[in-house]
Amino acid sequence: MKLTFARSNGAVDELIDTLMETVGGIRHPAIIREMFITALKSGQENDYPADLKLILSTMKEMRYTNKVFAPYRERRKVTIFGSARTPPDDPVYRSCLRFSRELADRGYMIITGGGPGIMQAGNEGAGSDNSFAVNIRLPFEQATNPVMSDTPRLITYKYFFNRKVAFVREAQAIAVFPGGFGTLDEAMEVFTLIQTGKTSPKPLVLIDDGKGFWDNWLAFIKQRLLGMSLISGEDFSLFTLTSDVDEAVAVIENFYRNYHSIRFVNGKLVIRLNRALEPEEIRTIETEFPELLEPGTRITMTPPLPGEQDEPDLLHLPRILMSFDHHHYGLLIACIWRINAFPPLAPIKLSPCEEKS
To answer: What is the pTM of this model?
Structure first.
């Protein structure tokens, strides 16, 4: 029988409906139904067990990831990358310890790879109750650190790609301390995801060791990548480089000063804000960032769009709408910083008579 995602499968669709009703508690049954159809189609199309096992393990790991993170959706999180080999007496370890402690004091949660070194420093500074550990099964180095070895917020992955999804998707900011191949791989992937719009805009902070680890990297990026036109100048808006922990914390805090989140609805970019922009502020954005807009279009304030109704907790936020040119995600980051630079609206000063009334 040839299965389709449309409801044209007759008895199969009825059996799936019956199964969901029997189990009970199924949210968003239309989506779950397509997951059933996907599994059945995979069974028809693949006769190689390793392929099916990969699909199965991926789905199981993603399901468990969602289960662990779901109770903490309302709290902002920062993912910390860095070397597993950094010892506790290293100044970089102590910097990470203070960085994560400062963030936890401000209400953030910390996500690390759950191993030793910088990962342990991140969890230790924030404390187990404010931490997640998304570990990976490796033949060496990656035993769970003692801070996170006995917590419900520990996930151990088989596949790196599932782990990377958790690192980026669940975080509102990324901090990268000096590290080896794994750290550089994780950092470069975040660069790529933000540059191509495959993850939402978020602050990416490279925290230096005071000895030029990231300075040397930046010199290479400028000389080779930019010098050979392999990246553009606006890509430098994607990240902040600092050796100052306080500055790193401030970058993350200030990124959400007015900016809240984005979403694409029917090809239009919705930028959700903590306060509405004034007409002159919108004109400033249009003047300073014309490349963001498709030719002949304008930025407008808008109520929530019909396509946003599946996020009811965000419907109260003011938002602006634009026809976005997808070549300019670096400029989009710069635009967000410009929006955050607008001063908060001054409170309306009442007259003495109004105050008494």
So the answer is: 0.91
